[in-house]
């Protein structure tokens, strides 16, 4: 087997975590407990079953056009083959509360890629600061990306939009252009600028426009001299 | 996606109120913020919808992690991704089998490190009552054969990998006990070649969940 490294770009989802200041927190309830199941099984066998309740925007989230467009594809309808082995371009974007279009200077063609904006905000994950002053895309940045036609745009901050902007230009326009959006990514600092491939496999929930996911970047190790 | 790659979606769609398991609560996809509601506070012409989704772990096409049957085993967030990503698939075809024995498993050849996907054809009944009746399952003999063959993943396209009336649940108890992840209610196995495709499963990392709905895919390069 050739070498390959799988980098998990997700945050864990757990009972009671803060999803967003004004959204319900996830619950992971023991629906059938181990003691309960031991009562109807034999030979010391037991299991448990959980009931998970959460907002679509919990943890590391995939957004698809249906979230902003009733006629757009939902999680079940968005073509999963567009989310497999998408060439990643990591774009350094730290130090800008409003990510300017200049971060794309000197980057080549972004068509068909996964543009992952590395702000470093994921270091605040799990603190209330994560929801304050989150980095977001400037309107010109949204214009640029809409023209460049990547397949996926992702950030390691809470939102591609400013919470104060009721026009939600990034989500409205990127999703309107059929571009999937990933928010609250982590681990972007360990990726090469180019050369990794993104795979996201969302649970196919009909009628849902966003859902927590487990995106990964796959990095093929360089060919060994002795190979 | 790279040119020349084919992706086969091995999952069933989950929708509000559908029966995916005879005695588990049905999934709820609830509009938490509706489009009309969001229009009231968004700029002109912009609306969105947010959902709260509630479902048992074993909804739709789902992954069972060792934690489901073994409290000390890894949950769906802790199964190493190296055991779920780009695993070579071996499809074992048992058309309209019911009690699947060791024979078809043994006949499939070397299974070490593989994802063994048992194709019964039962997935064609998905969404009908027939899906929950006469669902094919692995016998204890098949389970013993699989445990010694050391695959990384075992999957089936039926409703339950165990006989619903067998209180010892040998497939789940023993395969999960051997650190083998399970996939149940798979779909479209007829599109997957006997060998040569690669399985990818990326479960939402829900801590404390022994099973959770997934979108497994077979990748053919």
UniProtKB/TrEMBL annotation, chain A:
InterPro entries documented for this protein? KFase/CYL, KFase_sf
- Give the protein name, as stated in the record: Cyclase family protein
TrEMBL record, chain B:
Q: Which Gene3D superfamilies match?
A: Putative cyclase (3.50.30.50)
- SUPFAM superfamilies named among the record's database cross-references: Putative cyclase (SSF102198)
The record's annotation in InterPro entries points to:
KFase/CYL (IPR007325), KFase_sf (IPR037175)
Coiled-coil stretches noted in the UniProt entry, renumbered to this chain: none
Domain of life, per the record? Bacteria
What is the official name of this protein in its record?
Cyclase family protein
């Amino acid at each position: 087997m050739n070498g390959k490294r799988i980098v998990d770009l997700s945050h864990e989802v757990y009972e009671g975590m803060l999803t967003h200041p004004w959204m319900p927190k996830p619950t992971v309830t023991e629906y059938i407990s181990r003691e309960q199941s031991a009562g109807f099984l034999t030979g010391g066998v037991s299991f448990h079953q959980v009931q998970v309740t959460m907002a679509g925007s919990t943890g590391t989230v995939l957004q698809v056009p249906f979230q902003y467009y009733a006629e757009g594809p939902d999680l079940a309808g968005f073509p999963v083959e567009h989310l497999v082995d998408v060439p990643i371009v990591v774009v350094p974007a730290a130090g800008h509360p409003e990510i300017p279009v200049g971060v794309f200077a000197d980057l080549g063609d972004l068509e068909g890629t996964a543009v992952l904006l590395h702000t470093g905000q994921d270091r605040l994950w799990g603190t209330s600061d994560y929801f304050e002053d989150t980095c977001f895309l400037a309107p010109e940045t949204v214009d640029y990306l809409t023209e460049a036609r990547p397949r996926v745009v992702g950030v390691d901050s809470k939102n591609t939009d400013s919470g104060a902007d009721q026009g939600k230009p990034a989500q409205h326009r990127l999703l309107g252009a059929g571009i999937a959006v990933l928010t609250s990514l982590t681990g972007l600092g360990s990726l090469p600028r180019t050369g990794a491939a993104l795979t996201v496999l969302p649970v196919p929930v009909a009628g849902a426009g966003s859902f927590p996911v487990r995106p990964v970047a796959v990095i093929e190790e360089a060919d060994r001299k002795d190979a | 996606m790279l040119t020349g790659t084919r992706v086969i979606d091995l999952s069933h769609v989950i929708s509000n109120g559908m029966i995916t398991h005879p005695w588990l609560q049905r999934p709820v996809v609830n509009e938490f913020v509706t489009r009309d509601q969001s229009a009231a506070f968004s700029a002109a012409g912009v609306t969105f919808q947010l959902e709260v989704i509630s479902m048992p772990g074993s909804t739709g096409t789902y992954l069972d992690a060792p934690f489901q049957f073994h409290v000390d085993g890894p949950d769906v967030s802790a199964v190493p991704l190296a055991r779920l990503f780009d695993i070579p698939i071996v499809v074992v075809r048992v058309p309209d089998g019911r009690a699947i024995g060791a024979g078809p498993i043994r006949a499939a050849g070397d299974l070490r490190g593989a994802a063994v996907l048992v194709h019964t054809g039962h997935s064609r009944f998905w969404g009908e009552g027939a899906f929950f009746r006469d669902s094919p399952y692995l016998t204890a003999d098949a389970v013993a054969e699989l445990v010694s063959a050391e695959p990384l993943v075992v999957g089936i396209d039926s409703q339950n990998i165990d006989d619903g009336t067998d209180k010892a649940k040998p497939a789940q108890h023993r395969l999960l006990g051997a650190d083998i992840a399970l996939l149940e209610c798979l779909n479209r196995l007829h599109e997957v070649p006997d060998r040569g495709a690669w399985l990818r499963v990326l479960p939402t990392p829900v801590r404390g969940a022994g099973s959770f709905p997934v979108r497994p895919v077979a990748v053919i390069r």
